[in-house]
Amino acid sequence: GALRRLALALPQPAAVRSRPGRDWRWRNLLVSFAHSVLAGLWALFSLWHSPELLSDIQDGYSVSGHLLVCFSSGYFIHDTLDIIFNHQSRSSWEYLVHHAMAISAFVSLIITGRFLVAAVLLLLVEVSNIFLTVRMLLKMSNVPSPALYEANRYINLVMYFAFRLAPQAYLTWYFLRYVEVQGQGAFLTANLLLLDAMILMYFSRLLRSDFFPSLRKGSAGRDVDGEKFLID
C-alpha cells in the first residue's frame, strides 16, 4: 500500500502520460521495482549473515529469511489483486500464473517452516529483476539515452545468469536429487519445474529482443502497454 502511494506521487514521463493505459503499467512497474530492490538486498543479506543456511536447504531456518518470505508473499498477493481489480488479467495472465505458484509455495513454507532456505535462494531472482524492471521502465519512458539502455542491457544479461538461472538450476538439481517426491516435496518440485520452463521462455524472449532482434516474430505493431511480462 505504501509503495503504491509512493508510485502514484512520483511524476510520470511524457511518453507515459500521452498513452492511455500506460499509467497503470508504469505505476505497477515502480512498485515491482521497489519490491525487487528490498527483497533482492534482503535475500543477499540473509545468506551473507547466515551462510550456514546453505548447508541445510530443507530444514535450515532464520528469522530474517522467514520474514522475507512473508514480505514477498504479501507483495505477490497485492500485485495479483492490483492486476485483477484494474482489469489487466487478460494481458498479464502469465504473471497471475506465476504469482499463484509463488503464493501457494511460499504459504506452504511459512506453515511448515521447511524449505525456507530454498525460498530465500529463489528470491535472489529479485536482484536480477531490478535491472529487468529498469529495462522496461526505460523502454516505456523513451529516455533519450541509448548509452544507458545499452549498459543496462549487458548488466541485465549478467544478472539474469547470476541471480536467476544459476540459483534456479542449483535448486532444480538439489530437489531432483535429494528431496523425496511426496507430499510437500512433490508439490514444490512440480512448482520448480514449471518455473524452470517459464524462466527459459522469458530468457529466450530477452535474447531475441535485446540481442537477436531479427529473430523476433509477430511483435510488429503489437500493443504491449498492458503487458507485465517481457514480450517486446
From TrEMBL:
GO CC terms of this entry: plasma membrane
Biological process, per Gene Ontology: membrane assembly; phospholipid homeostasis; plasma membrane organization; regulation of membrane lipid distribution
Compartments, record wording: Membrane
Origin superkingdom: Eukaryota
Annotated signal peptide: none
Pfam family, one: TRAM_LAG1_CLN8
UniProt xrefs under PANTHER family: CT120 PROTEIN (PTHR13439), TLC DOMAIN-CONTAINING PROTEIN 1 (PTHR13439:SF5)
Name the record gives this protein: TLCD1 protein
Organism of origin: Leptocoma aspasia
